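Exercise 7. Predict the structure of Argininosuccinate synthase from Maritalea porphyrae.
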Amino acid sequence: MTLRQSGGLPYGAAKSLDLNEKTAFFMSKDINKVVLAYSGGLDTSIILKWLKVAYDCEVVTFTADLGQGEELEPARKKAELMGIKEIFIEDVREEFVRDFVFPMFRANALYEGVYLLGTSIARPLISKRLVEIAHEVGADAISHGATGKGNDQVRFELSAYALDPSIKVIAPWREWDLQSRTKLLEFAEQHQIPVPKDKRGEAPFSVDANLLHTSSEGKVLEDPADVAPEYVYQRTVSPEDAPDKAEIITIGFEKGDAVSINGEAMSPATLLTKLNELGGKHGIGRLDLVENRFVGMKSRGIYETPGGTILLDAHRGIESITLDRGAAHLKDEIMPRYAELIYNGFWYSPEREMLQALIDNSQEMVAGEVTMKLYKGSATVIARTSPYSLYSEDLVTFEEGSGTYDHHDAQGFIKLNALRLKTFAARKKIIG
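Solution. The predicted structure, encoded as tokens:
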């Protein structure tokens, strides 16, 4: 698809128009200001310049500190060098964990049974701030750097439209003709965009990171038959190289959310940061996954979620003594649907909010402490306690209890449940 087909100009076409033609074209676009999700990296820097060239518009940049572990001031300086006047750089780590990660973990959400949704859950927050900033600065549109093959384009745009149905979204990867690394580098050099030396060759893989996880995809990881090189892993040591001595920690919970480690109260982002440190040291949270993308293809990714893996196991541990069987099993039934909604970009959908209300209601009494053993790639629940525990030692003991449970009651219970099975078996006997 060329830019003209999707409402813009093909790269380089702007030069072929005279001033009057160009002005008339751009006025018809009615895009005067765009808020760009900007990382400061090469791709989004190219997008920044491309937006100014293709749309002849003002660009505002938004860079989110999601705990990706990178210094963000270089992004500010790079945006300034490229002539950007309005630059937003915001620390949203607490909001990210409190309002997005923790609600998701109350559901024990896992996509396709294993993936902790680290990339998926960050996109609704970025989209939210893009739309809010667009309103603040009077922008006509927002823009992102997601490619036309991935899930992120869907997540960004569905979230944006759910928050502002009238918002315009510019997705350069679906509009421009810079479809190769060579063309991108040529564009960068033509417009004096600094190109890091390691970007001039083929990058070994791409990385997305935030406080919950790192995601590595592409290049050396594209063939699922090949073992991922050890250098791909960034947050975790190899389990074989982890300490030979286990570490014991205690995580405190209130209303389903972790609030303390070893008795020390912590904010959501601080707590997850600490769990990442502990999990990374012990080689916890590695995942090599071939997943089914929402857009229809399979992709192979290497994920590291050290703190999240500990948190998930600990949360299930505290739920095991505080949730009623019916509530616990219902949560397990709806979890795949809830996880799929997040993966597919429907965080702001009415059905996700309905499920969230049900999940949050189940967490009122999910409080107490869980003791975890961290050792060579595993996070294991070894003890749990709660003031709201439904566990009754008197009921389950093999010794003589208080008499609350009468063993004879089980006879009628079994007979009633066996009735339909006996009837079914009798029919099978008749028909041979």
